[in-house]
Amino acid sequence: MLDQLGREINLKNTPKRIVCLVPSLTELLVDLGLSDWLVGVTKFCIHPENLRKQKTIVGGTKSIHADRIAALKPDFILCNKEENTQEIVVACEQIAPVYVSDINDFDSFYSFVDDLGTLLRCKPQAEALVTAVKNRLEQFRAKMVSEPVRSVLYIIWKDPLMAAGRVTFINVLLEVCGFRNSIAEEHSRYPEVDSELLKKADYVLLSSEPFPFSEKHIAEFETQTEAQILCVDGEYFSWYGSRLLKAFDYFQDLVFQMK
């Protein structure tokens, strides 16, 4: 099998000792019923709530303790192109087979979950999750048909000021909500933005991650734009795992809040 970067994955047996370096995918593995197989996670793997007390923390998403990972004797390591560096992937390859995900839209999410179902022998759970997400997505889109198109700027970082561009999973979810991204560049990822762009949006969304924006930051942005400023839960917009099942209810409440 190939991972989502086209790298060949060779597994002798079904993995029983998994290290996951991607918070959203750690939650996904648990929801697929694989918690007992997880032996190592990052310090940012905060869902489920008590998981980090039960597993070995092997570092973060950008910096790991390779010796801790090696000591766990994993037989499978799960990484992500955006979350983890190439150096981390190379280091992990010296320890165990590494699958690198690259999820930028729903199709790549479905494909990834299907791969997990095959590699980790949890096909029924994986298929059930994909079906559930597809159904929720279809239902949500039907509800959004009559909603007006709103121009939004989704801010992810404060200094420098950065926003989610067009080639991101965040942008896909913004479009699902009926929003139009104020970032015009088609191939943009996370560009820096200025106050002029803030003025062009109908709404400025301040994400709770990676920068921890909160209500206290709203007044600061209100001095730069007449757009409505809202704080949003970044996990629902950027966690491409089983959290998607909860995301659509959150999106519906958010759109209702904008009326």
From TrEMBL:
SUPFAM superfamilies reported for this sequence: Helical backbone' metal receptor (SSF53807)
Domain of life: Bacteria
Domain Fe/B12 periplasmic-binding, first and last residues per copy: 17-259
The keyword Lipid biosynthesis is annotated on this UniProt entry: no
Keyword Signal: yes
Pfam families hit by this protein: Peripla_BP_2
Keywords from the UniProt entry: Signal
Name this polypeptide is given: Predicted ABC-type Fe3+-hydroxamate transport system, periplasmic component
Organism: Leeuwenhoekiella blandensis (strain CECT 7118 / CCUG 51940 / KCTC 22103 / MED217)
Taxonomic lineage of the native organism: Bacteria, Pseudomonadati, Bacteroidota, Flavobacteriia, Flavobacteriales
